[in-house]
Structure formats: C-alpha cells, structure tokens
Amino acid sequence: MIFSRQMWLEDPYRNLLEIVCDAMLIVDEQGEIVLCNTPAATLFGYAREDLLGQKVKVLMPKCYREVPTNQRAAFFRDLQKLAMAADREVYGLRKDGSEFPMECNLIPVEGTEGTLISYTVRDITNRKQTKKALRESEERFRKVFETSTYGMTIFSADGGYIEVNPAFCKITGYTETELLARHVQDITHPDDREEDQASLQRLFKGGIPIHHMEKRYVHKQGTIVWIEVCVSLVKNSEGNPLYFV
Question: Which of 35, 60, 172, 220 has the smallest number of CB atoms closer than 10 Å to its CB?
C-alpha cells in the first residue's frame, strides 16, 4: 500500500499512532515532521501541534544536525544502526536543551510524495542507569572478592569451583588453576562430606536460607584445616539457581 501525506493526517492513521505507547513520528525526506503522537511530544517536551512542520533536527543534538538534505534518508538508516550498536549511543534533544539516550527504530514507508520515515523512539535512561548500577555493584564485589582476607569461592550446583580468591588458595595450599579443576568435595575431609553435601542440597532446594557449618579441608600438603564455612545461593531474576558463593 502506498501512503500519501494526507492519509497520515486522516483520523484512522492519526488515531493509530495515538494508541501506541512508544513515541512515534512520521518524517518526510526533507526532514519535516509530518505527524507525531502525544507520547513523542511529551518525551521531547513539546506540544504535539508545535512539532508538526518542524524539522526533525530540532530533536537532535548538534552533532547529528549537520546532514545534507540529500543524505538525510541514509542518515536516518544510519541512526538505526547506531542505536543498535553496542558501542555507540544515540541521543535525543528535549525542548529545554537536555539530552537523553534513546533507542531508535526507523522504518521507511513509500509515499506518493516520496519516502516517509516512521520513527519510533524509546527513552532508555532508566535502562542505562540500571546497567551502570549493576556494573558498579559487580566492580565492588570483584574488589572485595580479590582483596578479602577471608577465603571466598564461587562454585556450581555440582560443586565445581568457578572462581576462587587468593585467600582461599592460601588456606587450602592449592593454586587457582588447581582448584578450578576440582570440586568442593575433593578437598573436604571424608568425614564431613555427607553432612556438607546434604546441607548444600537443602540450600539449593530452598529448605534453608544459608549453609553454615564448621568442617575440615584437607590441605594440599595433607594436613587438616578447620574452617567455618558460610554459603549462600545466587539466583537469577526468574528465581532459578545460578551458583553458590
């Protein structure tokens, strides 16, 4: 179906944009905003009527504006690629001059007056803030893990070591490489294995909130090392077990 500019301005198509939750704009090849919905106007801080007929570059930071008219359609397609690229960010510009990170989806629509661009935008500020907070949390944990004077390990449901810190290596006498090739029960004293394993299973199945006991490790040199161990279970956002810490 070939769309005309007038068709977009008629009620069925204008109303269709209004019921969409995402911010949407229809832009022609000259960069003029033909149509926009209320979420788009709200996102950029304008009244909807104020955006109609404006050049779309008013919604772009300065670094995106200097694009020749005959390159604008290609520029729109490049924006979509940039928005999808892991190492690049695309920003929008609000009426008050503030910039915000956005996710773009641009689809060319053939019209009687040329190609129109359906331009869908999502503000991803919260997503970026969440990722930043998670990254900072992981960095803090990594620093504690590496520098702690307490032995710390991460091991899988079957007891295989995934990560061990330097303090744990010192306690057991094994190198990191040697431990990563072993399981928890390999260095646990034979007399403590049954109780240790049973408690870990209860923890895995949700029967207890934490596994806490005194037990014995067999040092690499063969000596007995008494330890107090405290194990918790890490789950993903769906509540499925990932690993023990």
Answer: 220
35 neighbors 9 (Cβ within 8 angstroms)? yes
Q: Which amino acid is at 180?
A: L
Distance CA 79, CA 117 (A): 12
DSSP element (H, E) containing 111 = strand 99-111
Q: Fill in the DSSP letter of residue 222.
A: S
What does the block give as tokens for 82?
């940039």
Residue 217 scores a pLDDT above 90: yes
Please, which residues bridge with residue 228 across strands? 214
CB atoms within 10 A of CB 128: 13
- Note whether 210 and 193 are within 8 A (CB): no
Give 91-106 pLDDT, tens digit per residue: 889 999 999 998 887 7
Tokens of 64: 């995106």
CA 217 to mean position of chain CA atoms:
39
- What tens digit of pLDDT does each residue of 136-169 get? 988 998 999 999 999 999 999 999 999 999 999 9
